Amino acid sequence: MIARLLTALLVLTLGVGTAREAAALAVVATSTSMGALARAVGAERVGVIVLAAPDRDLHALQAKPTMIRALRDADLVIAVGAELEVGWLPLAIASAANPRIQPGQPGYFEAADQVVRLDVGIPADRALGDVHPAGNPHVNLDPVRMSAIAAALAERMAGLDPDGAAGYRANAAGFAAALEQRLPSWQERLASAPGVLLYHRDALYLLDRFGVPLLGTLEEVPGVPPTARHLKRLTEQLRGRAGVVIHTPYQSPRAPRQMAQILGWPVYSLPLDPPADADAQAYLDHLDRWVMSLSPQP
Ligand SMILES: [Zn+2]
């Protein structure tokens, strides 16, 4: 029995190793959104390992030995950037001692660095605990920015793996086309969206893209837990109007539920990132879910 188990384990280990070695590029993505992007652009030429499950807050992770092991063999790291992973990724990358993926090298890619960021230039008080001092890092929910990021990623992959260049560029163009095809229906659905109360400014790019009003955030400063005084003020401002409350699975549901009850609004728990192993299709479905939740109630 034990021998059979050991054999099964060995086969499993060899199987994983072979799949990764067969890929032209070993990619490590910090989030499932970045993993979906890597799969959309890299397709069969990349082996992708994602460091953070979609139910984890990328602001709050810690460097772990499993991450360091994955980074040691990577040809390319895809981070969201803008200091989203600042608490753990730099340490994990330094510990991996892999010269190919150090910041500044072709093997280190930041998504937020490829696009114009929102919330830049807002006076940020690190002493207060503001976790967005470099602007808002949560670019992953904006389909248009993600198309631009995919194009930049295709060029980066092409530089690292010239034999795959044409394929990477074609895949990025296909991803952009698939997103563009859905834009009109998303625009139509969201044209009369009542607006949303978020916990954190994490869906800002999606709201900004489709003109959905951000009615407030339960956190007064990004990364600092809600205070009773701030919630009271929000209630007074928002009473009598329509809206929805959305929080992520890793944010405490207590204040969101309380606000939804007081205001008579629906409340949804939605992950910021698509499921584990997400590809381009799963990313599109993930955006669909957000659009449905933001849409006017029937
Ligand atoms: Zn944030």
Present the secondary structure layout.
Layout: H1 2-22, E1 25-29, H2 32-42, E2 46-50, H3 65-72, E3 76-79, H4 89-96, E4 108-110, H5 143-160, H6 165-190, E5 196-198, H7 204-210, E6 214-217, H8 228-238, E7 244-247, H9 254-263, E8 267-269, H10 280-294
Parallel strand pairs: 1-2, 1-3, 3-4, 5-6, 5-7, 7-8
Helix pairs in contact: 2-5, 3-4, 5-6, 6-10
The chain binds zinc ion (ZN).
Zinc ion binds near residues 59, 132, 138 and 200.
Account of the 3D structure:
This protein is α/β, with parallel strands linked by helices. It folds into two domains: 182 residues, Rossmann fold (3-Layer(aba) Sandwich), CATH 3.40.50.1980; 110 residues, Nitrogenase molybdenum iron protein domain (Rossmann fold), CATH 3.40.50. The protein is 45% helix and 10% strand. The chain has ten helices and eight strands. The chain has a four-stranded parallel sheet with strand order 2-1-3-4, with helices on both faces. A four-stranded parallel sheet has the order 6-5-7-8, with helices on one face. Helix 2 packs across helix 5, helix 3 packs across helix 4 and helix 5 packs antiparallel against helix 6. The termini are far apart. About 5% of the residues have low confidence. Zinc ion binds next to loops.
